[in-house]
Design goal:
Blueprint: H1 3-10, H2 14-23, E1 30-33, E2 36-38, H3 41-56, H4 61-72, H5 78-89, H6 100-116, H7 125-139, H8 146-163, H9 174-207
Antiparallel strand pairs: 1-2
Helix pairs in contact: 3-9, 4-5, 5-9, 6-7
């Protein structure tokens, strides 16, 4: 297909496609003349992945380039490729190694992960996210008990195994698998957060029925 057809198939403007080509995010098409190139389904998949990383994941170009490099590296297994994308999506948490409270919270997060038997790399950003959340609750006087943390861990594992893992097309092209991971991680994360807030409102209405908001 020509670049105009690639644009129509992916809903990505031609100037944007040319920008991705210049930046090396999109591989060049097959040159058929001095001014014309042909593109295929691989380019469609790559553009879908770039859009997912950019528009859903909100990743900067440098992070997108790193994820795409992992996708293209045939020496990397699928777990490493997916991990590269997953870690790129993680919000930044600055570890405070000089803070005793932080070290204690991080140790608690590491202990919980170890007790659960989860296979998580030491550098996983979510370790620091969990430690930061534990530390914040401690400092607010509402410490997260081991029982509560394990309850959330169980719910998270159940949601992932029952609703997400089977949706990722592991047997297909790597671009499709990473695209699915990005969408599931970000969008289902929003769904879970929204459903949790709705549940909180419903429980509050049950507890304080007189003050419950009325539907017009």
């Amino acid at each position: 297909m020509r670049i105009s057809q690639l644009s129509a198939a992916t809903d990505v403007p031609v100037p944007t496609i040319k920008y991705y080509l210049r930046e090396g995010l999109l591989p060049p098409g097959e040159q058929t003349s001095a001014t014309r190139a042909e593109y295929g389904e691989g380019h469609v998949r790559r553009l879908r992945l770039i859009r997912a990383l950019l528009e859903v994941g909100r990743l900067p170009i440098a992070a997108i380039r790193k994820v795409l490099a992992a996708v293209d590296d045939e020496g990397l297994d699928m777990h490493t490729v997916l991990g590269t994308a997953h870690y790129a999506l993680a919000p930044g948490v600055e570890p405070r190694s000089g803070d005793e409270d932080w070290r204690r919270a991080r140790a608690e997060a590491d202990r919980l992960i170890g007790d659960l038997g989860w296979r998580i790399t030491p550098l996983a950003p979510a370790r620091d996210e969990l430690a930061q959340a534990v530390l914040t609750l401690d400092r607010l006087g509402m410490p997260a008990t081991d029982e509560k943390l394990r309850s959330y861990a169980g719910a998270a594992l159940r949601l992932v195994t029952e609703n997400e893992t089977g949706v990722i097309p592991f047997a297909g092209p790597r671009e499709s698998a990473v695209e699915a991971l990005v969408v599931l991680t970000v969008v289902y994360g929003r769904i879970f957060d929204a459903m949790r807030r709705l549940a909180q409102e419903s429980v509050s209405a049950d507890l304080f029925e007189a003050g419950a908001p009325r539907t017009p």
